[in-house]
């Protein structure tokens, strides 16, 4: 099926010999928004890092298939070139490189096309206005001295510039005030179209007031134990994870 | 004969020093007439040389400095009268080749009260000649003067480089050193400031890059004598291949230097497990009421940073290069010539990508 973007088949991932993902399955088609929820320590961030190819997250078993090809063996840069993007929960500060220089370099790497300076400037400015970011941030060192909210917006800026096929947002909404959540959600809604998909990892329901997911998955103890629609998120908001957990273990 | 084990010199004998025939003084326009700027080989007498005592600082050692004083073939003597502030830097370039394989430069800079000058010296060479550089630069910064010295060493990998730099800093005067160390097979470089009087100040910012089998000895000393004197040492380096480096940074607070402050920081990125990096920061205090900080850290590139950059499509090599260049950038940007900034950035890039 040509609509299929990502298949995760029975994925098992270790960090330092400790099994965190214990046989996870997930299918994502183009045009879809997926939400992953779950208690702390269940493996949400591990899933994000494993999809992006962090060297400390070792795939023990299973397969990650992107557009029909296994990407298990690819390093993070190759995965980025194949269209995967991760919005980090804690973006790194890189002093000495400005947001603009960095994004131009990254866009060149990911797209394989040299970015003309003036055209890129224009594109960047446009995207920054959409995200209500002050223009001066383009000339600032990457994430250095940015507030939590500014760092997250900068991640969404990178996503909208790099135009990946699959964007993974790892707790992009945590630590944001309501206005920032609205802006981030707006960025997500502008980004999604028939050629891409989004996987949102979140703790909260706030974001779901603005984003309409196609699927909500509950990730507990290294596995997706339940999949549903937005009503699942609403149920968790009311009753927490205990009910679902209890049902699952029975 | 010199033996200097740390950088692999044994029974070393200085080569014969030839005349340096190229023009090395690059811009001497717009210099006010009362500034005395001369090539040291053309000065009738160097009386100024003896007006200040810097004997307590050994620099690279008597063998090296005495040799410069007796055998120099180049260098400048500059005398800045009171209140003269030179707006554009004085620029020197030594380009060694088979006809001019040796540079022994002796530079004397006297800044009278409230004067200001920036001197940029670029040492380079062709790619193949085995060249030799041994220099000695002396700065005498009198009350309220500012002297900035920028040195760029990018001599080829077959050559030996030795450089001694000493400043005597008087009341409220400031001496800023910038050192860019990129070349030579063996390089010994030393910068020392004597903070003689009240509120005198000296800052050193340096970067170094070790690749191939280069051996480097970097020695920086700040001697605080005057009260409320200030000093900073900030060094950033990267080592790859089988290069070796010794960093020694001394903050020396003498009796009488109360309320003085000194800080030193060295940060080195190790790109290969085959490099050798020694760092010896020292804090010496004869006076209690001083503040001295030192921080030295050596490490591999932060894995989280590397992953972050790679997740944006940069290869591992590109990511490492970007992190190193980024750490060098604030220091390179202090160099007052854009063309030199570019030359340095390209040289850093070339050496990081090769091998």
Automatic annotation (TrEMBL), chain A:
InterPro entries: ABC_transporter-like_ATP-bd, ABC_transporter-like_CS, FeS-cluster_ATPase_SufC, P-loop_NTPase
UniProt superkingdom: Bacteria
Domain ABC transporter: 6-246
Keyword ATP-binding: yes
CDD domains reported for this sequence: ABC_FeS_Assembly
SUPFAM superfamilies given in the database record: P-loop containing nucleoside triphosphate hydrolases
MF-aspect GO terms: ATP binding; ATP hydrolysis activity
Gene3D superfamilies, sorted: P-loop containing nucleotide triphosphate hydrolases (3.40.50.300)
Pfam families reported in the protein's UniProt record: ABC_tran
Keywords of the record: ATP-binding, Nucleotide-binding
Membership in a protein family: Belongs to the ABC transporter superfamily. Ycf16 family.
Protein name as catalogued: Fe-S cluster assembly ATPase SufC
From TrEMBL, chain B:
Domain SUF system FeS cluster assembly SufBD core stretches: 96-326
InterPro entries (UniProt xref): Fe-S_cluster_assembly_SufBD, SUF_FeS_clus_asmbl_SufBD_core, SUF_FeS_clus_asmbl_SufBD_sf, SUF_FeS_clus_asmbl_SufD
Short name of one Pfam family: SUFBD_core
Superkingdom to which the source organism belongs: Bacteria
GO biological process: iron-sulfur cluster assembly
Family: Belongs to the iron-sulfur cluster assembly SufBD family.
Protein's UniProt name: Fe-S cluster assembly protein SufD
Organism: Wansuia hejianensis
Lineage: Bacteria, Bacillati, Bacillota, Clostridia, Lachnospirales
């Amino acid at each position: 099926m040509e609509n299929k973007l990502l298949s995760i088949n029975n994925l098992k991932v270790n960090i330092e010999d400790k099994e965190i993902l214990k046989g996870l399955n997930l299918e994502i088609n183009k045009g879809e928004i997926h939400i992953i929820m779950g208690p702390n320590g269940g493996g949400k961030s591990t899933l994000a890092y494993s999809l992006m190819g962090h060297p400390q997250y070792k795939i023990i078993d299973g397969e990650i298939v992107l557009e029909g090809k296994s990407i298990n063996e690819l390093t993070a840069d190759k995965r980025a070139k194949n269209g995967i993007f991760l919005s980090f929960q804690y973006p790194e500060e890189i002093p000495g490189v400005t947001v603009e220089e960095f994004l131009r370099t990254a866009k060149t790497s990911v797209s394989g096309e040299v970015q003309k300076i003036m055209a890129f400037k224009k594109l960047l400015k446009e995207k920054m206005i959409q995200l209500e970011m002050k223009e001066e941030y383009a000339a600032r060192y990457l994430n250095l001295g940015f507030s939590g909210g500014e760092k997250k917006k900068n991640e969404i800026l990178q996503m909208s510039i790099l135009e990946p096929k699959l964007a993974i947002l790892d707790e992009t909404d945590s630590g944001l005030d309501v206005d920032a959540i609205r802006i981030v959600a707006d960025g997500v809604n502008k980004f999604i179209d028939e050629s891409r998909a989004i996987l949102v990892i979140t703790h909260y329901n706030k974001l779901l007031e603005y984003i309409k997911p196609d699927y909500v998955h509950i990730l507990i103890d290294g596995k997706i134990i339940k999949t549903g629609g937005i009503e699942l998120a609403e149920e968790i908001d009311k009753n927490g994870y205990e009910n679902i957990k209890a049902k699952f273990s029975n | 004969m010199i033996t200097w084990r740390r950088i692999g010199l044994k029974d070393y004998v200085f080569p014969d020093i030839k005349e340096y025939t190229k023009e090395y003084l690059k811009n001497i326009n717009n210099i006010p007439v009362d500034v005395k700027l001369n090539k040291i080989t053309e000065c009738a007498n160097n009386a100024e040389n003896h007006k200040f005592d810097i004997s307590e600082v050994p620099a690279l050692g008597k063998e090296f400095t005495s040799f410069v004083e007796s055998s120099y073939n180049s260098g400048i003597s500059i005398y800045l009268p009171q209140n003269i502030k030179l707006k554009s830097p004085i620029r020197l370039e030594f380009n060694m080749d088979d006809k001019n394989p040796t540079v022994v430069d002796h530079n004397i800079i006297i800044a009278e009260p409230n004067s200001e000058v920036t001197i940029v010296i670029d040492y380079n060479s062709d790619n193949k000649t085995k060249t030799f550089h041994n220099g000695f630069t002396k700065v005498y910064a009198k009350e309220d003067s500012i002297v900035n010295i920028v040195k760029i060493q990018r001599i080829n990998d077959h050559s030996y480089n030795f450089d001694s730099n000493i400043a005597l800093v008087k009341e409220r005067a400031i001496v800023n050193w910038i050192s860019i160390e990129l070349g030579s097979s063996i390089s010994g470089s030393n910068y020392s400031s004597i903070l003689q009087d009240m509120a005198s100040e000296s800052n050193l910012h340096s970067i170094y890059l070790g690749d191939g089998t280069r051996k480097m000895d970097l020695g920086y000393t700040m001697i605080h004598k005057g009260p409320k004197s200030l000093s900073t040492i900030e060094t950033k380096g990267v080592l790859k291949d089988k290069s070796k480096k010794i960093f020694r940074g001394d903050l020396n607070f003498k009796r009488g230097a109360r309320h003085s402050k000194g800080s030193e920081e060295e940060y080195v990125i190790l790109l290969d497990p085959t490099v050798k990096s020694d760092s010896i920061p020292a804090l010496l205090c004869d006076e209690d009421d001083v503040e001295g900080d030192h921080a030295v850290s050596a490490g591999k590139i932060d894995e989280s940073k590397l992953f972050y950059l790679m997740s944006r499509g940069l290869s591992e090599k590109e990511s490492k290069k970007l992190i190193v260049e980024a750490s060098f950038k604030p220091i390179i940007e202090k160099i007052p010539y854009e063309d030199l900034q570019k030359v340095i950035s390209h040289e850093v890039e070339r050496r990081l990508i090769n091998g």
